């Protein structure tokens, strides 16, 4: 601190950083300058204000350094204020066309909202015309339904699905309600008594209708399990279960897993006391499989596997597992080894293209996500990526990585 060399080096380094930032951004792009200059500016300001401790500098230089430091400080404040205003707008130069090919309703079930994003593709397009920009201000509350959620639990994140005139919703602790959409009256309620000490959330439920499954034969439809639950609601619980319910009655589907339930913590790694792995997102129904990912803690070593699994919605049996650490795996892991730990997980909700028979998996990073020094090839290849897998086999078709070596 007593030598002036560090002081002059800080000035040279800061000027070089500015030149580098300008050369790399090549334009006036506010948000691109922020990560390149804010932290260096803060360090530069501190070095300027520390100049008073340098005996080698005379009073004039110290005064100038303080003024420069204040200039840098106010520049940071200005950048903070400016961050609350729009910058770098990206505008589409092409006129928006009301293309019916892009904005067409679901041809099979035009009145239903069967998925988190309305359809398997997640378009969220609603072909409804009763509510318009002109009359939306006149809407009144038609009814209110109280789910009975535990107020000490996490926030509500669920998107109810609509099948005909019935809505299906879930609370953070996975209490499933069937609600009459016209009156708001409860049709049935199912409480799985799900308990966990962390990350209590439910984003929604899945829906499967065996009578519309074209892969089934007439004989298949007469099977006891299908006859008992021709239409079913699928939900994953925060304590690691996949549950199938009769959509009309709320009763467990007896032929699914063990009396309507499947343990999804098996072979996942450390999940003691239902901690460290939580399938909080909506099971995606892709044909006759329910695709399931899950939440892990991310920030530490030794976390459960990020494997994405598909279960047969009729039987509860594992159809396939997308385990990047064991790409040749077909079903359950052999020899008690379990799924590969610390692989990139899919916490959110995938999408499904029925025509292409592909499921699109958005992945995170392999734990620990803030440290990338010891990632293996599988973690590097499939982290922060969009991965297309075959809906019937789970085999990778292609992968696009949005950020390489993301931390």
TrEMBL record:
Alphabetized InterPro entries for the sequence: PQQ_b-propeller_rpt, PQQ_rpt_dom, Quinoprotein_ADH-like_sf
Occurrences of domain Pyrrolo-quinoline quinone repeat (ranges): 113-407
Cofactor(s) the record lists: pyrroloquinoline quinone
Keywords tagged on the record: Membrane, Oxidoreductase, Transmembrane, Transmembrane helix
Organism domain of life: Bacteria
Coiled coil: none
Residue stretches spanning the membrane: 33-52, 64-85
UniProt-recorded Gene Ontology molecular function terms: quinoprotein glucose dehydrogenase activity
Gene3D superfamilies in the cross-refs: Quinoprotein alcohol dehydrogenase-like superfamily
Similarity comment: Belongs to the bacterial PQQ dehydrogenase family.
Protein name as it appears in the record: Pyrrolo-quinoline quinone repeat domain-containing protein
Organism: Acinetobacter variabilis
């Amino acid at each position: 601190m007593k030598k002036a060399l560090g002081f002059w080096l800080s000035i040279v380094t800061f000027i070089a950083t500015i030149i580098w930032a300008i050369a790399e951004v090549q334009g006036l792009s506010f948000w691109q300058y922020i990560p390149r200059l804010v932290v260096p500016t803060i360090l530069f300001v501190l070095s300027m204000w520390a100049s008073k401790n340098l005996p080698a500098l005379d009073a004039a230089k110290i005064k100038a350094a303080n003024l420069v430091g204040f200039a840098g400080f106010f520049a940071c404040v200005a950048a903070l204020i400016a961050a609350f205003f729009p910058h770098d707008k990206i505008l589409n130069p092409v006129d928006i066309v009301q293309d019916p090919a892009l904005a067409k309703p679901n041809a099979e079930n035009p009145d239903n909202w069967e998925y988190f994003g309305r359809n398997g593709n997640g378009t969220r397009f609603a072909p409804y015309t009763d509510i318009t920009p002109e009359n939306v201000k006149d809407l009144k509350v038609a009814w209110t339904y109280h789910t009975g959620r535990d107020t000490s639990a996490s926030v509500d994140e669920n998107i109810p699905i609509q099948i005909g005139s019935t809505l299906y919703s879930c609370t953070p602790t996975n209490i499933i309600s069937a609600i009459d959409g016209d009156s708001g009256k409860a049709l049935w309620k199912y409480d799985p008594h799900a308990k966990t000490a962390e990350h209590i959330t439910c984003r929604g439920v899945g829906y499967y209708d065996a009578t519309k499954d074209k892969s089934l034969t007439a004989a298949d439809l007469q099977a006891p399990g299908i006859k008992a639950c021709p239409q079913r609601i699928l939900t994953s619980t925060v304590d690691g279960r996949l549950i199938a319910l009769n959509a009309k009655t709320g009763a467990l589907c007896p032929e699914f897993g063990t009396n309507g339930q499947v343990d999804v913590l098996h072979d996942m790694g450390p999940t003691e006391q239902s901690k460290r792995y939580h399938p909080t997102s909506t099971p995606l129904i892709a044909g006759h499989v329910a695709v399931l990912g899950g939440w892990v803690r991310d920030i530490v070593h030794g976390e459960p596997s990020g494997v994405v699994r598909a279960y047969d919605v009729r039987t509860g049996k594992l159809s396939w597992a997308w385990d990047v650490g064991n790409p040749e795996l077909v079903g359950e892991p052999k020899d008690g080894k379990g799924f590969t730990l610390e692989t990139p997980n899919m916490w959110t909700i995938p999408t499904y293209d029925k025509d292409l028979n592909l499921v699109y998996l958005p992945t995170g990073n392999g734990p620990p996500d803030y440290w990338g020094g010891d990632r293996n090839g599988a973690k590097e290849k499939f982290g922060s990526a969009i991965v297309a897998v075959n809906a019937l086999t789970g085999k990778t078709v292609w992968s696009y990585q949005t950020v390489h070596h993301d931390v």
